[in-house]
Request: fold
Amino acid sequence: MSAVWRASRAAVRRRRLQTFVIGLVVLCSTTTVLLALGLLDAASSPFDRAYAAQRGPHTVATFDTTKASPEQLAKTADRPGVAAAAGPFEQTVLDVPAGWLWLAGGSLTVVGRADPGGPVDRIELLEGHWATAPGEIVIGWYSTGSPGPRLLGTRLEVPGSAPLTVVGFAAAASRSAGAWVSPEQMTALRPSAAQMLYRFTRSSTDAQLAAALAGATAELPEGSLTGTQTHLALQQAFSALAGAYLPFMTLFGVLGLLVSALIVGNVVSGAVVSGYRHIGVLKALGFTPNQVVAVYLTMLAVPAVVGAVLGTLLGNALAVPVLRVAFSGIETGRAAVGDVGAWVSVVCLLGMPALVLLTALVPALRAHRLPAARAISAGGAPRTGRGLRVQRLLGGTRLPRPVSLGLGQPFARPGRTLMTMAAIVLGVTTVTLATGLTSTMLAFGEAGRGDGTRIHVEAGGPLNDRPAPVLGDGPTEERLRSLPGATGVRARGLAQVSLVGQVRPVYANFYRGDDPAAAGRIARGREARAAGEITAGPAFLTQNGLKLGDRVTLAMNGRQVAATVVGELVEGNARALDATWQTFRQLSPEASAAEYEVRLAVGADVQAYVEAAEAVDPDLRVSVLDARNAATVTVVAFSSVFTVLLSTVAALGVFNTVLLSVRERRRDLSMLKSIGMTPRQVVAMTVTSVAGVGAVGGLLGVPLGLIAHRLIVDHVGVVSFPESMKDVWDAPLVAGLLLAGVAIAVLGALVPARSAARMTIASALHTE
Reply:
């Protein structure tokens, strides 16, 4: 093996360019694959670990205690299919004022529970102690970190009952309640519902959960089950934004893997073909066929391992900001999103070199079978007669001789040509996909923004511990509307409401005023205009099992309003809905706006308006809204980086193909030069030899890119793209993309083509 190692090191030093190409290809591919696998791991692992550690329920079911007794509910734990159960726990809903413990105000689901342990839904106590005495309450705290002991002792006024004192903060992975009290205290709160927590033997799909719950509650009175919440919906909410990025990240990872395999196979095959003389010399010196195979595999393993290590390091370095962006703005709760899992790095470190070696095995076995005498005599020339018929046909046309010769060259090495074409097809597919995603996301970023600068004005109130506007809500809005430059003002109120029959609270945005760009935020249906009309994003509708036309009941402050879903937003928070100001008034007659959005006329003096708005009331906080959309920036940046990586890898494949072709045809090129072919004609012939392959690659790659773009934009769970954002293709754009294959091929061929043009006749024939 010492001889094999010495020969391999010498081959690596002699073939520096091929070594560099393999290492760069593996580095780019490893980085791309690691990012895709890392996002997939981060989108599920933290939630799964936290949920399993707390024995989270597969289903949280709420029952009407006027129809089902506690004894009847307890018997459901013994039904077939129920692995474990906890409850029944009595449940009620309290009204919380805005700003209390920095909450938005509205409804708070409270459950009576004697202790935080049990077979299902083990609650993690963060601060203080559990509520065991009357007048005590533990608040659910689902932000990362602990609120600290300073908030303990806060009092909550309860109409018709003694006030409750906060004695602890806790977190439940299931979000089964917003707060907990002792069973004795719950009796004083006059509950009207009860909660059961189930873990089922089969729980991996919604259908299995529905069937298991139906079996458990089959003997209960009809209509006693009023609401459910599953762990699948919670997991979807946790990974909603990351899941939006996952389809195109995964697709780019697969493309990177395929391009890597093709280019490495092409490079390795070319290394064997161009190294026929080297193989013959090794065998003549006494190397066995197995040792020759070992030399070539070792020669390729060195750059593959280096590329995999560097790609893994680069991927892990990029993963931290990527995951931070992917999970920004979503409720991760106690399930912290950290670095990429160790298994992802191990897979990339071991898998990519293994892929290179497997790809290299076929051409290396060709070297195993090659006799020494034939290898030494063959040199680097291709076999005679291959592709001659096509070259003769092209020679009989009226095409310029360099062009006809160039177009015929790919047929001399059909296997290598097909591999190069496949790499170009994947490169064009990537460029087409990235172009479509960029166009779609730019249109998405402009949705609902309209013309003119937008100004955000935050009013004082309980939520931010600042005094309310001196003028009051209505007069403040009128003053903002009357300032020079304003073309429209929209007020927004925020409250926490309950969907009757659902466990988790919902945040509601209530709007008043005019916004000419609001219609641009609607993907299907229309915007809410009257009392009892709501709109929501696709994630909210999916997780709550709603669609256009469905009716729900909103509850807040002891009042209820029947509402109809009239529109689906392009995007929206998975726990928030939008409604009209009339609906807000029905739920809370004393409601007031928490903030205002002002749209200025095009060309208006932004700074002058900001100063004038701040002069209206010293407690108003005025800022200019950023016109950028974080998701748009993220997707465009990701797709641009991956496009550059994969296009570079495809161009490197073309570069390697042309370089091998030039080295193999040194004698032919010298003969052509000796009969009068100029350097420019050599360049034209060499570039033409891959331009045709690039054109065919473009014709095949563009349709694949169009299909991939449609598949991705149709399956982004947190965004519902309307057809106007999906249909981004026009004739000039498609025509330009068809030339992308030619561009990749020409860019990869220019350097070796110029090298061939500078080659002298004497140097080419020197070894003949």
Q: What stands out?
A: The first helix runs from residue 2 to 14. The chain is about 50% helix and 15% strand. Residues 328-337, 379-384 have pLDDT under 50 and may be disordered.
